[in-house]
Every structure is written in structure tokens, then in C-alpha cells.
């Protein structure tokens, strides 16, 4: 998935003079004012003096509204806190969908097929990515405040409407569409804000923001598990909604503090670069991400269902397995980032894709609870790199970094289709025998897709090494 580093487009090309106006900008000590200075010497006449002032103003364009990032200070770290709160809501809910998949199949939507139920979660994830790509240019045009307010409103509204839902289409519209649209409006801009305020410490800042994914997943799954039995599904979802509302309300002032410069429009980034279609590395990269995305999210959706149906685990134990998987992904993101620094992003991506594919195929033979717990933790650890490392890998193969955001958006738009269809296809392969459900189709689908992705990554690695001639660490 694209990160704020890829969409950190702080340079403004519009050559419009800023009239006498004060505005806030990133600063390690707070807000600074830019004032136009008048020339005190009036020796050459009024006409020459006026011309000199006009020339001086012409150099003060909106580009100066976004100076180099301060890499610290109250406002900068408030952006990290705000992004952390945003990610608790948008990705925390997306990765916890396995808990809802299990509950819907056994209780709320028991008449629907596993494939149909999967569409709810995959549509939410797909909208998050696609709308996220489109929200990048809106951020450049100065609509961050609007997206922040509307996005948070839609996410909380979707959760509250889910608490009132009783039919498939009500759940689909509230959890899949409404929450997906809101999350998409928040996804890229919240990371881009962190990128604007950090440079040398950007990796640390991004890592803290990304950790909100695991924190949100653990919080929401635990609440869902404990409250559904005691208070019922509607009130369990409302309680989650109140937590999401608190996170949203905390994120808004944190992300807007010291950011009056956001009202200045910047040059909108192009959404399509035709030259990318003739770049073999770009095409192979897209095949890599598309293949891995087909299999990546499947276990997250079916870990609780497998534990209940195949291993006879209680619902609480099954959900705890998903919690352990998401917790494992937290450490996986940290370790894969360090590994990518030393081994190269493409190599790290390939190793983790291969390990994930092997784990998915080994899933076929798991028949014990203890073994499945180990699988869940390892899956979360290794699969985390499949969504965090690709952005760094893409930067390594992009010849013109000024087109990085556009090209990555193009590639992720294609790969998001894999996120949309991967789990529903796996659900269609899920069969019920006389006594229990047969998960062999789900397991083989996930494993084979990841192995195909590994094959594409070997091709990408070989092509990159041959082209760049910098050694195997790429």
C-alpha cells in the first residue's frame, strides 16, 4: 500500500504571489509568520520602488508555504498521534473482519454463503485503497480538512449503522461501502501529513502510525469477543463505535494543529502516466503485488472460522487466534523494515512472500489448536511485509521519482482488485461435507497465489539486478 513517503509532494508549482498574509507552517518551535518587507530607502523614485517591491513579492510563491520538514516539535508529533488514531479505525477494522466473517456465518447472516459474506470485508478494503489513491490529488488541492471531517464522519456513521443492521444488504452498505469510503478519504492524507512534517525521522514516525493497525485490531476484536455474548451484537458494535468516535475526535485537532498552510493549493498530481505501460519493471511489479494480494488477506478472514469449524475451538479462543495473528503483524512490520534496509526491499518482499506461501500450504495439515496458534502468529509476522515493503521496493525501480506517486497509485489501483476478489474466491472454494467444512480450497488458493507472487518477485529481482548493476541487495 502507498505510504505518505510516496505521496509527500510538498513542492508547489503555481507561481502566484502571496499578498500580505500571515499563515502557519511547519516549525520545530510552532508557527512562524512571513511578512513582506518594505524597502526603507526611497532614493530612486516611487515608480522604481514600486517595481522593486513587485519583483520581491514574485519570489514569495506558495511553494514557500511548505518549508523543509522540522523533524520534531509539538505540532510534528501531534501529526504522528493523529495518524495513529486514524489507523486504529481504518485498518484496525479492516484486518479484524475475520471476527465478523465467523459471526455472520454462524449467526447474523447464516443464510448467506461464505463467499457473499467475504465481499463485505473485501469491498471495504478495496474502497480504502482506491479512494485512498484518489484522495492524494485532493490533498494537493487543499481539501485535507474536508476529507478529515467527512472521512471520520463516514467511518463512525458506518459503525453505528452496522449496529442497526439485520440483513445482508444493510451490513454491506454500512460496513462495506460507508466505512470503506470514509477510510479511503483518511488513508493517504493522514500519512502524507506525517511525511510533510518529518524527513530524517520519517521512518520512525511512519512506524508509530502504522502500529495503530495492530493496536486497533486487538482492541476491536477483544471488545467484539467480550461484549457480543454479554450485551448482544447491536450494543457491542455501538460500544466499538464510541471508541472509534473518541479516536476520531482526538485525531482531528492533532492533524490540523499548526497547519493553516493547508489552505494553499498545490499542483495536482497526475493520476495516469502513459510511459509506465512501457516500463517492464513497473509491469512486473504490478504482477507481483496483484498475485500476493490475491492470497494475503484470505487467512485473516478465515482463521476464526477454521478454528471453530475444523478444530472445535470456542468462539473466544478463535478470536484470540486472530488477535495473536494481528499482534504478530505488528512485530513483522518492524522487523521487515529493518531487513529491507540491510537486504533490500525486493529481497525482503520475496523472502516473506515465500515464507507466507509455505505457511499457507502447511495450514492444510494443521489439526491441533496449539499448532494453529503458532501458525496464526507466524502468519501475521511474515505476511506483514507483503503490504509494507512493496512501497519501498517500488521506489527502487522507479527511474523518475517525480512520478513516484502517480505510478504507485496506478499499480495499487490494479492490485486493489486482487484484494477485492481474493477472499470471495476462497469463500467459493469452501465446501461443507457431511460432518464439517472442508478448507482445502481456501488453503491451496492462498498458498498457490503467494507462490506465484514469489515467482514474479524472483523475476523482478533478476531484472532489477541486471538493470541497476548494484549487487543483489535491491
Automatic annotation (TrEMBL):
Family matches, as Gene3D superfamilies: MFS general substrate transporter like domains (1.20.1250.20)
Predominant location category: membrane
GO molecular function: transmembrane transporter activity
InterPro entries cross-referenced by the UniProt entry: MFS, MFS_dom, MFS_trans_sf, Proton-linked_MCT
Protein name per UniProt: MFS general substrate transporter
The keyword tRNA processing appears for this protein: no
Provenance organism: Decorospora gaudefroyi
Residue ranges with Polar residues bias: 21-31, 55-64
All residue ranges annotated as the Major facilitator superfamily (MFS) profile domain in the record: 75-470
One GO cellular component term: membrane
Residue ranges, compositional bias (Basic and acidic residues): 7-19
Region (Disordered): 1-66
Subcellular location, record wording: Membrane
